[in-house]
């Protein structure tokens, strides 16, 4: 009798788990359908793209030993930033003494994001802790110094004020690396999140954080600060990490950061990003995606590396939109909740934010 009851109990529990999985899958499918109806890459880049990407006959890859820079293909040419919304947002940021990664990293999407694009919603990724980094990655144009200026104690409150003025439902916070600080700036991140949530508890906050030298207490401080999305970029494949990133950064350390955030706060959505066009092979990209999934990463973005200045790494190859589409499909096959893959996709990608916001709000509704 006991065995029969136990068997019936286990069967019932198995059925319940299968039902929960089905419900979870159906909700994800519904959100993905909503995303297909909402903004996509085509809405955030210029319209003057060739109808057939395969028709472009320009050179997309440097041969071994060649030093000449590749010409920019037409799908990567963006419009010059203009418009009243662009100027208004720029003035607001200046008046509040805030920096943005959009400007410091010379993001090619700045005109689309700041002007509002077709949907009329201006967005910016705020860069905390100043505009000077303690590291010198070979892909990044942010200025560097061993001793950056001290932190601005009022920055968390000013950031919350700016977010309140914009009336956004989703905000991305990032920062320079601050190895000069004992906690790497993790307390500053946490305080900013709390200030934003204090003004509007419903706003969704994503933090794109440095590696904090792998410190578990620092990672935990940010992961448990009330944010909704914890992002940290591996940037490139493991083989190229020593040549692309600062020596203090490492591929395995970045994976541990992402895994630790998920471990200390399983409710978080975790996210990472990969640059393509540095000479990586398909096998290396595939392995990177698998490593990220093994670390519990939920969302991934893949975009084209763009050389910010002549002092930085040259582009080895311009990856075609068709290849990016293939990686987007592969990300879905590997089990990522969302994969944003395209030539102008960056860590903070508005279509991705649209999906994540839908996912998080669906979760909140379930909890309620």
Mean pLDDT over the residues: 78
Cα Rg: 21 Å
Give the spatial strand order of the biggest sheet: 1-2-5-6-7-8-9-10
| Low-pLDDT sequence parts | 2-11, 35-52, 80-84, 101-105, 109-122
**Overall spatial form:** globular
- Listing every helix as H and every strand as E from the N terminus to the C terminus, the arrangement reads HHEHHEEEHEHEHEHHEHEHEH
Largest sheet: 8 strands, mixed
Strand content: 5-15%
Number of strands: 10
* Helix content estimate: 40-55%
Summarize this structure as a short list of keywords or feature phrases.
eight-stranded mixed sheet; two-stranded parallel ribbon; alpha/beta; 11% strand; 42% helix; 368 residues; 10 strands; 12 helices
Itemize the secondary structure elements and their pairings.
Elements: H1 2-37, H2 84-95, E1 99-100, H3 101-104, H4 110-115, E2 125-128, E3 132-133, E4 143-144, H5 155-166, E5 170-175, H6 186-199, E6 204-208, H7 216-223, E7 229-231, H8 241-244, H9 251-264, E8 269-276, H10 282-294, E9 299-304, H11 321-334, E10 338-341, H12 350-367
Parallel strand pairs: 2-5, 3-4, 5-6, 6-7, 7-8, 8-9, 9-10
Antiparallel strand pairs: 1-2
Helix pairs in contact: 1-12, 5-6, 6-7, 7-9
């Amino acid at each position: 009798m006991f065995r029969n009851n136990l068997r019936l109990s286990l069967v019932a529990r198995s059925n319940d788990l299968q039902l929960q999985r089905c419900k979870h899958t159906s909700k994800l499918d519904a959100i993905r359908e909503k995303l297909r109806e909402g903004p996509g890459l085509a809405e955030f880049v210029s319209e003057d793209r060739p109808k057939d990407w395969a028709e472009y006959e320009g050179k997309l890859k440097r041969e071994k030993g060649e030093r000449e820079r590749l010409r920019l293909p037409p799908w990567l040419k963006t419009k010059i930033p203009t418009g009243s919304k662009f100027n208004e947002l720029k003035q607001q940021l200046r008046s509040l003494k805030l920096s943005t990664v959009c400007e410091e990293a010379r993001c090619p999407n700045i005109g689309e994001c700041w002007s509002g694009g077709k949907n009329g919603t201006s967005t910016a990724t705020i860069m905390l802790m100043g505009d000077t980094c303690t590291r010198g990655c070979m892909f990044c144009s942010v200025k560097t110094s061993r001793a950056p200026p001290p932190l601005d104690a009022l920055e968390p409150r000013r950031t919350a004020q700016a977010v309140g003025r914009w009336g956004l439902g989703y905000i991305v916070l990032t920062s320079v690396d601050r190895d000069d600080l004992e906690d790497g700036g993790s307390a500053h991140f946490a305080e900013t999140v709390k200030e934003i949530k204090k003004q509007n508890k419903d706003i969704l906050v994503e933090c794109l954080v440095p590696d904090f030298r792998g410190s578990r207490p620092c990672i935990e401080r940010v992961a448990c600060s009330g944010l909704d999305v914890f992002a940290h970029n591996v940037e490139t494949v493991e083989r190229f990490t020593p040549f692309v990133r600062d020596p203090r950064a490492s591929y395995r350390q970045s994976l541990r950061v992402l895994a630790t955030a998920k471990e200390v706060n399983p409710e978080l959505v975790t996210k990472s990003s990969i640059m393509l066009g540095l000479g990586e092979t398909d096998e290396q990209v595939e392995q990177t995606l698998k490593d990220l999934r093994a670390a519990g990463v939920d969302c991934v973005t893949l975009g084209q590396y763009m050389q910010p200045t002549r002092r930085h790494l040259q582009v080895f190859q311009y990856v075609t939109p068709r290849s990016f589409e293939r990686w987007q499909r592969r990300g879905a096959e590997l089990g990522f909740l969302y994969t944003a893959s395209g030539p102008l996709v960056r860590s903070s990608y508005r279509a991705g934010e649209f999906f994540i916001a839908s996912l998080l709000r669906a979760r909140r509704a379930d909890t309620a």
